């Protein structure tokens, strides 16, 4: 058993305690303190505003907003098996303090509803409806969409159904925009099988391994424990349904989008090949690819200072377009 696996399995012992509200608060404070060396100087945080919306099919989605309602808006869409907590560093980043920041839990994740039917996740229009519901419920006027990993697919599904006239810009972060074996790694293909296993022991081990594969610079043990809790909350049907989608290529949608696209990609990504982002860059004339040399699948977490500065500059420019 390698060191990473031992760390995760050891962390699993503390899951019950971490699920308690007090432990959650303590670990959140510890994570912020541990990351000060990698982020900009601390500043008082704006109050979080929780909200709940219902998608077109009745699925309840839980989210949070922060910042001046009149400020330019950024809507964060997290990846597979993650949650809105993935963006904690961005919500605390002074570089993004002048924006209205909104995050939510995708269907099947975090505090949002978890439908049991596979078509709730295989139908791209359901994901699109979720984004539309959040935009309407949070009263966003013209947000920049940030789509990480699966979130890139969700952003593309929204553009496919609703168009991009109401979207100021798109930041694709190690995003899945085309389900193709040559653009995803063999490791990602293995997780497609193991994280949907009906064998609880195999699925549990695969969940820990999948989380480890999301980073080139591993988070602290305490942070990994908290993330593992969130990963374990994800409905198995999410993975099983998503891989059955008939909407496998969203490149034409991004090509047709008239606004700017910022492509962010960690060069050490173990799940999504850089070629995925390079393809979008090749088909969209108003796009820029930014490679993060010290990051894996999660550059916004691994190199948050640089990421926050680039996102702030991109969103500010996009908002003027």
Q: What do you see in this structure?
A:
- The protein is globular and about 50 Å long.
- It has a single domain (3-320), classed as Rossmann fold (3-Layer(aba) Sandwich).
- Helix 9 crosses helix 10 (221-232).
- Helices cover 45% and strands 14% of the residues.
- By secondary structure, the protein is of the alpha/beta class.
- The longest helix has 17 residues, at 304-320.
Based on the model shown, name its key terms.
disordered N terminus, Pimeloyl-ACP methyl ester carboxylesterase, TAT_signal, 14% strand, Rossmann fold, globular, 321 residues, alpha/beta
Summary, kept brief:
This protein has helices at 3-12, 15-19, 21-34, 88-91, 119-122, 124-137, 150-162, 186-194, 200-213, 221-232, 236-242, 251-256, 274-283, 299-302, 304-320, and strands at 49-54, 60-66, 73-77, 100-104, 144-148, 169-173, 261-266, 287-292. The chain is of the alpha/beta class.
The count of β-strands is 8
CATH class: Alpha Beta
- Tell me the CATH topology: Rossmann fold
| Annotation field: number of helices | 15
Mean pLDDT: 89
Quick one: CATH superfamily?
Alpha/Beta hydrolase fold, catalytic domain
Number of domains: 1
Helix content: 40-55%
Principal-axes shape call: globular
CATH arch. level architecture: 3-Layer(aba) Sandwich
Instruction: Characterize the biggest β-sheet.
Output: 8 strands, mixed
Question: Uncertain regions: pLDDT < 50 for 5+ in a row?
Answer: 1-42
Radius of gyration of CA atoms, rounded to a whole number: 18 Å
Largest sheet, spatial ordering of strands: 1-2-4-3-5-6-7-8
Distance between the termini: 52 Å
Q: Into which percentage range does the β-strand content fall?
A: 5-15%
- Report the order of strands and helices: HHHEEEHEHHEHEHHHHHEHEHH
Structural class by SSE content: alpha/beta
